[in-house]
Fold these 2 entries.
Entry 1:
Amino acid sequence: MTLQSEAKLSQIAEAPVKGRTRRYRPGRIRERNRERIIAAAEQEFAQHGFRGATIQNIAERAELPKSNVLYYFSNKKRIYYALFDDIMARWNAVFSEIRPEDDPAQALETFIRTKVEMSRRFPLASRLFAQEIIQGAPFLKDHLRTSMREWVRGRAGVIQQWIDEGRMAQVDPVQLIFLIWSSTQHYADFQVQILMVENKAEYEQRDFDHAADFLTAVILRGCGLEPTKQ
Amino acid sequence: MTLQSEAKLSQIAEAPVKGRTRRYRPGRIRERNRERIIAAAEQEFAQHGFRGATIQNIAERAELPKSNVLYYFSNKKRIYYALFDDIMARWNAVFSEIRPEDDPAQALETFIRTKVEMSRRFPLASRLFAQEIIQGAPFLKDHLRTSMREWVRGRAGVIQQWIDEGRMAQVDPVQLIFLIWSSTQHYADFQVQILMVENKAEYEQRDFDHAADFLTAVILRGCGLEPTKQ
DNA sequence: GTCTATAAGAAGATAGAC
DNA sequence: GTCTATCTTCTTATAGAC
């Protein structure tokens, strides 16, 4: 049972009901409730993982009766899958495309800043992903093995080209991608730890700017590159 | 309810029973069973978090009946706390001490390599810690606010001294600690993702050596330092 | 479409036999 | 010390009233 196959199932369930084209937009409530449930489920699953999350808690967060949640998604797995549909779509849309003809410093800086920005805007998605991986990626294994593996191979190839052309220091491209992933996601996944250590109640925009500046400076210099003045 | 107070409670429960000094060592079975349970619980909690873990599963992993587990620890929280007793003890024992009189390059290299080595030797402990933080650190909040905060302040102070003496580039010391934490722990916490992306069945020693070499090279260069020939 | 009631099973925890 | 039996509560999921 792959993410892809389940994704299709959930899309079918999502398809608008035909022959009911009324003026007040059919499925308006449906849409709104689905969104509430998705938002609530993201919080619950991000915090407690698949097994630790309960439908009751999701329902309470969504301010809906539990059976209403099960009416829309029929079971716990479907809710979980639906979340990854959304997250992977966002991931693929935003994800930095680096090309051989780009300037290495500028491309890597954009990559780092985009990832930090994602940690800022979608911390729950980041934590949900982290939970799924820590738990052994039971749902995303196929995706990692195929799409994500291909993505890394492609990006690593571009970085290797830059190295071969002497445009940056000789560093392992795949390890570099891991470094950028880990260091940027950290701000979302370990938010509580960072806030406690820095003695703050919550993050502000400038904290993320500062983090992005720091990571850009250190990683680019670490790759033998000078930060661009973007 | 702090970690410290519960830690004391678990130590009391651990105290040897008096007036039973027999030749075959009293509590031998007890000790062995406790260890089995701790090892099993580490796996279960690391994979599923506090709420997702079940006593039944811990018992099965330990190959003991469920009530035997509850006999030794009386409830789920006690098992969880006992894990952090062990982990924090290890953490404090191994944790890299950097001092102002040290060479920055050598000290940071040791820090990075020690952390990678910990990811290799104790991946479950790393994942357990990650789970606890992602879930909002309900058990470790006090520890983060006090001990860990102090530790970071101390280490950051030393790094700042090096910077002020012009012995390394001007980088935010606290962010540097976060960077080293995140990038090194990543090899334990996101093990599955790395293995899938690199198309491997499992890690080998040389993968960790390679990762440590990479991180040392990039981060040291990123801090304006040359790697030492250690 | 929505929600109450409830089945069926699993969870944490305890009592007490051995 | 060990383990079976059991209590209570909670969990997923379904049936069916409205």
Note: The domain at 3-83 of chain A is CATH 1.10.10.60 (Arc Repressor Mutant, subunit A).
Entry 2:
Amino acid sequence: MAVTLKEVAERAGVSRSAVSRTFTDGASVSAKMRRKVEKAAQELGYSPNALASSLTTGRTKLIGLVSNNFHNPIFLEVFDLFTRGLQDRGLRPLLVNLTDEVDPANSVRMLRQYSVDGVVVASSTLPPGFAKAFRDAGVPVVHSFGRSSASPQVHVVGIDNVECGRMAARALMERGYSRVAFLGGPEAATSTQDRHSGFMSEMALHPRISVTCSFADAYSFDAGRREMLRLLKSKPAEAYFCGDDVLSIGALSAILDSDLNVPDDIGIIGLNDMEMARWENIDLTTIHQPIQQIVNSSIELMVSTLNEPDRNPEARIFPCSVVERGTLRPAP
Amino acid sequence: MAVTLKEVAERAGVSRSAVSRTFTDGASVSAKMRRKVEKAAQELGYSPNALASSLTTGRTKLIGLVSNNFHNPIFLEVFDLFTRGLQDRGLRPLLVNLTDEVDPANSVRMLRQYSVDGVVVASSTLPPGFAKAFRDAGVPVVHSFGRSSASPQVHVVGIDNVECGRMAARALMERGYSRVAFLGGPEAATSTQDRHSGFMSEMALHPRISVTCSFADAYSFDAGRREMLRLLKSKPAEAYFCGDDVLSIGALSAILDSDLNVPDDIGIIGLNDMEMARWENIDLTTIHQPIQQIVNSSIELMVSTLNEPDRNPEARIFPCSVVERGTLRPAP
DNA sequence: GCAAGTTTTGCAAGCGGTTGCACAATAGAG
DNA sequence: CTCTATTGTGCAACCGCTTGCAAAACTTGC
């Protein structure tokens, strides 16, 4: 079926090693030999079998790209950036969808069967145990969008969600709201927990302000809408920090449906600054998460770790900032 | 590093073949042998190396998932469905991002180096040449969301875009619009061409109705918005068939910005029915594309083709239907 | 033109598995 | 308890490629 090394060698009248060497860079081959081999390879349409060579080199250039966020549009951008970034460095993403998966063991086994060189866990909702399971299996791993920590157990690249919570609280305070609330994503997600605690810790500095909390059961439009509809039944807060942009948009839709006005009756600030947030029909005030930097840095960290597997776990945390749009009343 | 067949064999005190056979189903092993081997494997934490075995079996279970649509939210759903569907059948998606790629040769070479068993081209904007290039390289291929045809050259699964164009035209006629327009995506995409030609052919039946056309340069929010802003400078049509939902939303944003009302001043009908289309703050009337069926059918076709590589190319076309929401005035 | 030093090249073993073939072990029949 | 039919098992070759080692082929300097 496919052309092999051996056929090229025969055609060029040289040894198999010679052919192998012309296709591995850094190997010593004379110019004449290289010409002969390349000619034969050309004629036969040969290209080396990466899997076979991985057997002896121990490297596949395959990277597991593991996620469970397939309903948050920001992750389409994330996948775009990851696949392009990895490709550009000669790495191949093996995509693993962990929706509804609770046990890391299966994916660990599968990715080891395919001898991936490394794994990127790209998720803000997978528990840290997943990333650790890969590390324990001896696979280099980077957790992108994971929980920041001063002494991480695996490489983590992302944002400081606690600080984002504080930032949101400060934004609301600057705008003079006196009854504010946190509307979080799934309570089990570390990102929700951290945003919540940051928000509360900042609000603790303003004891006169009333603060309430509730949680949607997913980072999704429907969950946000449902939760906000529920909140609107009793007296809602003046402004909400929503755990995520999709959630915010769901909440917005509920508010608009109830004939209330944003930002006059209720203010919303989201988190992520996904592409859609700046669409004029949405125009969401939100906290920008620098996903491009996060992804690039993750890839860079992955590549370094491949070359130096015993590198100590590292946390790379990027700063966020408030993007002023139309869903919060202006600061005075 | 990783445990190998040989170590398991030694520990269990049996031959390597015996171990291999207990891990390939359909092979003949006695119950006693199986127990011994499984015990040893368990203790050592062995799991077979899929890549090594592919060398002799000729099957990797790797499927190239090739796309260039990383900015249309509907493709997040598509990737979700594909990855889960493939995983469920024991296949592994190797994701290839073809954004900005014009020459299929590179990806063909790369996917052959990784000995993928098959390739799914999931894109409505990649030219048919890409799918054909894989076929020519002897790799089973399914083009999802490709151009429908009575005698396809490769397997195609998708919708009849010409018919969708007609359907949109009929929807506008039923609602009594007298000046309508087509606002398409990139002119080079076969999907745009087909939707356009269907729309025009149906409109040819209504010679009294004025019809105009224009094209955005991508299936994206920005492109739709930009094009609609341009159209609004001179006298716009009463209703637009937009080539796609994201495009529609871009157009909507332009319209709302210009203090015009939808659907009273201008009507919009989209195509795809992506998740967002039903979000209350968008509420887009659109044509539903059954992506779940398309993806499942694509996977099913892929699997059949793997078992029977010489199968004739087949087109599987699924019907679409108008989803009535708020961006078109109601039919009388 | 020769010795010493420097590439190049081929050989052969190995990477982790699978599998046809021949032989061993067991089962079934009488 | 034989004799045949049916599994079950091990040997060894092979899948496509890499690489340490030693020999072959070049350089270079004198």
Note: The mean pLDDT of chain A is 95.
